[in-house]
Amino acid sequence: MTLLPRSLFGRLVLLLVAVVALAVLVSVVMFRTERSAVLNRQFGETRLVQLQALRAALAGADGPQRRETLERLSGEYGVRIIPEAERPMRGQPPSGPLMEQMAERLRDRLGPETEIRFAPRAQMLFVRVVAAGTGYWIGVPVPSRPPADEFPTRALVWTLAVLAFLLAAAYGFARYLARPLRDLNAAVVRVGRGEMPPPLPESGPSEIAAVNRGFNAMTRDLSRIEQDRALLLAGVSHDLRTPLARLRLGVEMGLADEALRTGMVADIDEMDRIIGQFLDFARSDTTTAFEAADLNMVVAACVDRYARAGKAVRFAAGGLPPLSLKPTAISRLVANLVDNALAYGAPPVDVTTSQADGMAVVDVADRGRGIAAADVERLKQPFTRASAARARSDGAAGAGLGLAIVDRIARLHGGSLDLLPRDGGGTIARVRLPLPR
Fold first, then answer.
1. Cα 405 from Cα 417, distance rounded (Å)
2. How far apart are CA 61 and CA 73, in angstroms?
3. In b/e form, how buried is each residue of 388-423, taking b as 16+ CB within 10 angstroms?
4. pLDDT tens digits, the chain, 437 residues: what are they?
5. Whole-number Å distance between alpha carbons of 293 and 382
6. 3-class SS at 308?
7. What is the DSSP string of 323-380?
8. Hey, what CATH topology would domain 288-434 get?
């Protein structure tokens, strides 16, 4: 259970109310403090001497000219004098440490019977003094605000400090409220890269909790669909390879026509290769761990298999540090690029590694007809084949999965795939992988 509102709107309202309430409270406290400071300034040493002199003058104010004497003294001292017998004072008693200190100081100088009262409407501070056994209330004017040249510096400092505190508190609270949105955005980015993020917390504001629940359900559905798709493709591919093997065996043993047998064997090999691509596309590389590996060794081992088979594939290694890789996936990446270069381009196929701009670069270049700029992104999509202008040299159709597999493996490593025109004709398939920091 929590006392905070469940909704994001409710928490924002709570923030505004809390900030306003705190600002009002601080304003009230500062006003009372500054008012007490102003009153204290009115009773400096000069004012105390005047009050002592006025009390001595009031001691002889009895008699028929009493009222005239009081009026004269009021004018001379700039105060208001009221006999206690005529009008008992009912103003506010002193409050706060500053006012208590001032009252104690007045009693020390004017006698223990001294009292003070504040009249807010009249903006006057009344001091009760006793002269010749008679009580008088002496009203001293208090300005509603200090003069411009006496504006207290500490009030400005306190105001700025409180403002800074409120801004910091509002910023921290806003970041706290926005953190679930940042986590959700990071999870969406990971899904966009083909990764499955960990489940998001389904707590916090009700709106965020509902979105996170929906997102977690979506990722679970995607993961289940991916597993079902992989299982389906793997099952179909496995079931097809068995009769294909029997068919090839029968063709090789039963057909006397060499040309017909060779063509049928080639068709069976192509079907087997397509099934292999289906298996590669269905394979999930997210479960295997990254490990420190030499990219040049992985690429060299892959190229060496083609060289032993008599293919015109050359490799030039550049200086690279060990990288965090999934070597088996990188080997499939290079093999798919070399297969594409041999099938759609013209030999020789040049494979090179280098580093630039903090990235490791693998280039697979051919001497074919090249790829139109409008087809570059389309060819990275699954089951997409090249146009007639860039048909396979062996006439086969292909499954349209080679570059899709390469692009997925590159993104799994935090890298990218680019298809660039090659000087003198042909295409460069460039894979960029991040170097360790």
1. 11
2. 10
3. eebbeeeebebbbbbbbbbbbbbebbebebebbebe
4. 567 766 666 676 677 777 777 776 777 677 666 655 655 565 566 777 888 888 888 887 776 777 888 888 888 888 888 888 887 766 777 666 767 777 787 888 888 888 888 777 777 888 888 888 888 888 888 765 544 444 456 656 776 777 677 777 777 776 777 788 888 888 888 887 767 788 888 887 777 888 888 988 888 888 877 776 666 666 666 666 666 676 767 666 766 667 766 767 766 766 766 666 666 665 656 667 789 999 999 999 999 999 888 899 999 999 999 999 988 889 989 998 998 888 888 888 999 999 998 899 999 999 888 888 878 888 887 766 665 444 555 544 455 677 888 888 898 888 999 999 998 888 999 999 999 87
5. 29
6. helix
7. EEE-HHHHHHHHHHHHHHHHHHS-SPEEEEEEEETTEEEEEEE--SS---GGGTTGGG
8. Heat Shock Protein 90 (3.30.565)
Long-range pairs for 186-193: beta carbons < 8 A, 24 or more residues apart:
187/215, 187/219, 188/215, 191/219, 191/222, 193/411, 193/412
Tokens of residue 255, six digits: 């057909």
DSSP letters along 279-290, please? Answer: HHHH---TTSPP
Alpha-carbon gap, residue 138 to 48, rounded angstroms: 12
Q: How many angstroms from the chain centroid is the CA of residue 281? A: 34
Segments making up each domain of the chain, as ranges: 43-150, 193-284, 288-434
pTM for this entry: 0.46
The pair of structure tokens assigned to 110 is 């004017």
Question: Alpha-carbon distance 373 to 363, whole Å?
Answer: 18
Say which CATH topology domain 193-284 has. Helix Hairpins (1.10.287)
Quote the CA–CA distance of 159 and 166 in Å, as a whole number.
11
Q: 3-class DSSP state for residue 307?
A: helix
| CA dihedral (45, 51, 55, 58) positive or negative | positive
Closest CA to 143 of 212, 45, 41: 41
User: 129 vs 33, 41, 82, 93, CA distance in Å?
Assistant: 26, 20, 11, 15
Tokens of 53: 């002199």
Assign 3-class secondary structure to 350-364.
EEEEEEECCEEEEEE
Q: How far apart are the C-alpha atoms of 277 and 400, rounded to whole Å?
A: 9
Fold of 43-150: Beta-Lactamase (3.30.450)
The per-residue b/e assignment along 43-71, b for 16 or more CB within 10 angstroms, e otherwise, is: beeebeebbeebbebbeebeeeeeeebbe
- Radius of gyration, CA atoms only, the chain: 46
